[in-house]
């Protein structure tokens, strides 16, 4: 059964030249997709990575990445919403590149689909009441 898992991977000046995607493809025949990446001037950085494949193979691939010195944290729910602040204005919906935020046509409430979110942060920047937070 093929599945998709998402991870936050941090790297430093010692492993920034390595290729996480190459390892996952070449050694484990997995399908990685870099959803977001940032490299700082000092050689440190982080990326949000989606990995598709068999669950046990993904686990072995991620263990290999950790063994190579990368810090790996699973992403389960990386966008959070404070419902007490959100008034469902919809400003976040129009900026979401993956359409993970949608307005329910019956209730007019904004719903978040974590499974398709790529943690780009566009919705967080659009929220004037600061109801959305990006946790990486």
What report would you give on this structure?
By secondary structure, the protein is of the alpha+beta class. 24% of the residues lie in helices and 32% in strands. It contains four helices and eight strands, in the order E-H-E-E-H-E-E-H-E-E-H-E. The strands form three sheets. It has a four-stranded antiparallel β-sheet, covered by helices on one side. A two-stranded antiparallel ribbon has the order 5-8. The protein has a two-stranded antiparallel sheet with strand order 6-7. Helix 1 (20-28) packs across helix 2.
Which helices and strands, and how do they pair?
Elements: E1 3-11, H1 20-28, E2 31-39, E3 45-53, H2 55-67, E4 71-74, E5 79-81, H3 91-95, E6 101-103, E7 110-112, H4 122-126, E8 132-134
Overall 3D shape = globular
Report the sheet-strand fraction.
25-35%
> Runs with pLDDT <50, length 5+?
none
Biggest β-sheet, characterized? 4 strands, antiparallel
Q: Give me the Rg, rounded.
A: 17 Å
Oligomer: single chain
Query: Which strand order does the major sheet show?
Result: 2-3-1-4
Mean pLDDT: 89
Q: Strand-and-helix sequence, N→C?
A: EHEEHEEHEEHE
Distance between the termini: 28 Å
Helical fraction: 10-25%
Number of helices: 4
Number of strands: 8
| Alpha-beta content class | alpha+beta
């Amino acid at each position: 059964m093929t599945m998709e898992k998402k991870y936050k991977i941090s790297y430093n000046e010692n492993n920034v030249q390595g290729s996480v995607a190459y390892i996952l493809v070449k050694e484990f025949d997995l399908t990685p997709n870099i959803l977001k990446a940032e490299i700082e001037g000092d050689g440190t950085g982080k990326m949000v990575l989606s990995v598709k494949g068999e669950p046990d193979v993904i686990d072995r691939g991620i263990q290999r990445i950790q063994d190579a010195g990368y810090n790996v944290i699973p992403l389960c729910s990386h966008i959070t919403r404070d419902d007490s602040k959100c008034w469902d204005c919809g400003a976040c919906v129009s900026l979401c590149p993956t359409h993970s935020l949608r307005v329910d046509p019956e209730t007019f409430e904004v719903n978040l689909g974590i499974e398709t979110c790529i943690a780009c942060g566009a919705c967080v920047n659009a929220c004037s009441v600061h109801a959305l937070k990006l946790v990486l």
